[in-house]
Write a structure and sequence with these properties.
five-stranded mixed beta sheet; three-stranded antiparallel beta sheet; 330 residues; 15 helices; alpha/beta; 15% strand
């Protein structure tokens, strides 16, 4: 009799667990890049059960060189994406109505890293040089900066030659470019790990140059926000995600370990991810997830200040909302 009761109870527990699993609301998040500490907050939120506490079942899809988050969400492959605002606004102007619902990153990590031996000591020295630039939506901050400096990017004698940079640091190591695009938390350290000493480099952080634009925001399609059920799901998602980000900031080594556990490729190393998490924490510090309107305006003005070739042609309307974070952060 006791065995029968125990069996029934066990079956009941199993059924209840299955019910909760089935009842959880599905959310698909498309990352901007591969699994790494840049996205630690989301992996931590999943690992620590923050999403589950909100009744969410979140599928985190890594990005890669051939994956454009905006295309993924436009094609129905994700509910929400991580993207940089220049790319998101340019995409919006082209007809994909992306809306920023949260901004976990307060600071930009983008910079140009130059070999000191190239003779580059200030932006005035860029003319006549070859500069490595990422494309696939990542080129907009660079093009905006060059436009503000009034430096053509056509390879002419008064401009710079743009080298389409792969997602590595080879052009600098092999001295194909005087400067390359790097992130404070990733490629810069790849240069250092390749054996080049910091004193042999000159760096120009976009933040220091006054041309920083917002990175790593959360974007959804505007039409979907009109659905109250979807909006409520995003409120839960943002609340849990920001809980994950703040946990990651306070526990960087543990967060890096969680990222490594989720790296199915096995390509990431503990040393690099723990160092990256330390740098990422500097960028997310100061953000509670709500977009700072002043940061948005600064980004827009930077993108509009492109002379005859601006990244966007007019001030965007409806490109962000506080509706989600107002509810999530109560």
């Amino acid at each position: 009799m006791n065995k029968k009761i125990a069996s029934l109870l066990a079956a009941g527990v199993f059924s209840l667990a299955a019910f909760h699993a089935n009842a959880a609301e599905k959310v698909t998040l498309q990352l901007k890049w591969v699994t790494q500490a840049q996205f630690a907050g989301y992996y931590v939120a999943k690992d620590k059960g923050f999403y589950e506490e909100e009744g969410l079942d979140v599928d985190i899809k890594p990005g890669g060189p051939d994956i454009a988050p905006a295309q993924v969400i436009a094609g129905g492959g994700a509910d929400v994406i991580v993207d940089w605002m220049p790319s998101a606004l340019a995409t919006r102007e082209k007809g994909v109505p992306l809306v920023n619902i949260a901004q976990p990153f307060k600071q930009s990590g983008m910079m140009l890293t130059c070999l000191k031996e190239s003779g580059v000591t200030s932006p005035d020295d860029f003319k006549g040089k070859t500069l490595g630039v990422w494309f696939f939506g990542n080129e907009y901050p660079f093009l905006s900066w060059m436009s503000q400096l009034k430096i053509p990017t056509d390879g002419g004698p008064e401009g710079v030659t743009v080298l389409k940079q792969g997602f590595n640091v080879d052009p600098l190591i092999q001295k194909q470019a005087a400067c390359i695009s790097t992130m404070t938390y990733n490629e810069y350290w790849q240069v250092i790990d390749a054996g080049i000493k910091p004193e042999d480099l000159v760096t120009f952080k976009y933040e220091d140059q006054g041309v920083a634009t917002l990175e790593d925001g959360l974007y959804v399609l505007e039409d979907k926000l009109k659905d109250p059920a979807f909006k409520e799901k995003m409120v839960k998602f943002v609340r849990a995600s920001m809980k994950g980000w703040k946990y990651a900031e306070e526990n960087p080594d543990e967060a890096a370990d969680i990222v490594l556990e989720n790296d199915s490729t096995g390509a990431q190393t503990e040393k690099h991810q723990k160092r990256m998490m330390g740098e990422i924490a500097k960028l997310t510090a100061g953000s509670n997830g709500a977009l700072d309107e002043a940061d948005f305006k600064r980004t827009v003005q930077s993108l509009l200040a492109g002379g005859s070739d601006p990244v966007i042609s007019k001030e965007p309307e409806g490109a962000w909302t506080h509706e989600v974070t107002d509810e999530a952060l109560k």
